[in-house]
Design goal:
By secondary structure, the protein is of the alpha/beta class. It has a domain at about 5-165 and about 200-225 and about 280-300: 3-Layer(aba) Sandwich (Rossmann fold). Helices cover about 40% and strands about 15% of the residues. It contains 13 helices and 12 strands. The chain has helices at about 10-25, 35-45, 60-70, 85-105, 135-145, 175-180, 200-215, 235-245, 255-260, 265-270, 275-280, 285-290, 300-310; strands at about 5, 25-30, 50-55, 75, 105-110, 155-160, 165, 185-190, 195-200, 220-225, 230, 250-255. The strands form 3 sheets. The chain has a 7-stranded parallel β-sheet, sandwiched between helices. Strands 7-9-11 form a 3-stranded mixed β-sheet. The chain has a two-stranded parallel ribbon with strand order 8-12. Helix 2 (about 35-45) links the parallel strand 2 (about 25-30) and strand 3 (about 50-55). GO terms for molecular function: aldehyde dehydrogenase (NAD+) activity.
Length: about 325
């Protein structure tokens, strides 16, 4: 791969994939709707000559076709908010796949684990897809759209991430916790503090995603992107205290609290049905990746949190 385009390049996963591609000497086009954010991304990379940007609408396949015509691989990292998922997710899928099909391109779709529903088996790519939530059912429709036979020339694959964290993270479940600690304010934790859960450090995820994208035989399939093992909220907060010296309280938010907050906050209203993951967790298997591609990159939680707080804290450390 010598050229790539990243759709949703200023988002949490988009930014780390841009960074990973540039690290490998790949020419990257960053695609997004905000010229201000795209300009900031260029500045962040010291105006690297390998990086350019196009302002465009993810729901306009013609715009994507024009921007992606010289790219070998399209990385689809754009997303829609929880509140807009029912009305916009499938439109997004249709748009990006139409563009990839017109161009006959490889396309890497970044997605999550809602399609699986409750964990009933080992979390590999053959885990039953039995979603019991509206979002999970929509995500399954989305997958079926991506792999639909009507696309004669597009060559897609889907990568699935668990909860994640990192300096570029924006809408993750851990984000309010880490931002509150970084600002030295009372903070909250979505879910209970005892359940061990899986989180992937975003730069690790980007490395795995690009490794997968470089393999011709990886397309047409789902790929799970595992994290660095399990960790409870209590242990995350303890590590955060050691790193930052934070001494204030962190309040766990259970389903009832989230439901009450949802009366005033449309995002929190949508979080309620996904709270099962904060209680049960879901562990992804990396066996397919290890067997097909190699060693899974794992940044220890403490190091990942140190790097995240370095970006989040006003004084930089």
């Amino acid at each position: 791969m010598k050229t790539a385009i990243v759709l949703g390049a200023t988002g949490g996963t988009g930014q780390v994939i841009v960074s990973e591609l540039l690290t490998r000497g790949i020419n990257v086009t960053a695609f997004g709707r905000s010229e201000r954010k795209l300009g900031a991304l260029l500045k962040q990379h010291d105006f690297n000559p390998l990086l350019s940007y196009v302002v465009g609408d993810i729901f306009d396949p013609g715009t994507i076709v024009e921007a992606a015509k010289n790219a070998e691989v399209i990385f689809q990292c754009a997303n829609v908010s929880y509140q807009e998922m029912a009305s916009k997710l499938l439109l997004l899928g249709e748009s990006v796949m139409m563009a990839a099909d017109r161009l006959g391109k490889k396309i890497v779709i970044v997605d999550g684990i809602y399609v699986y529903g409750h964990q009933v088996a080992k979390g590999d790519e053959s885990h039953p897809k039995q979603p019991h939530t509206k979002k999970g059912k929509l995500r399954l429709e989305f997958e079926n759209l991506i792999f639909n036979n009507k696309w004669m020339k597009a060559n897609p694959l889907i990568v699935r991430l668990p909860d994640y964290y990192g300096a570029t993270s924006q809408n993750a479940y851990l984000q309010p916790t880490l931002e509150g600690i970084a600002a030295n304010k009372k903070s909250v934790f979505i879910g209970n503090l005892k359940t061990p859960r899986e989180y992937v450090y975003l730069p690790d995820a980007a490395q795995m995603i690009v490794n997968i994208a470089e393999r011709d035989d990886a397309y047409g399939e789902n790929w799970n992107i595992p994290g660095a093992g399990l960790i409870s909220g209590k242990d995350i907060i303890q590590l955060a205290r050691e790193i930052t010296g934070y001494r204030k309280s962190v309040i766990p938010l259970n389903k009832t609290a989230i439901r009450l907050m949802g009366m005033f906050d449309p995002f929190m209203r949508e979080v309620v049905e996904i709270m099962y993951l904060t209680k049960e967790g879901f562990v992804l298997s990396g066996e397919k990746y290890e067997k097909s591609i190699g060693t899974i990159p794992i940044t220890p939680f403490k190091k990942g949190l140190e790097e995240t707080f370095r970006a989040l804290m006003p004084d930089g450390h």
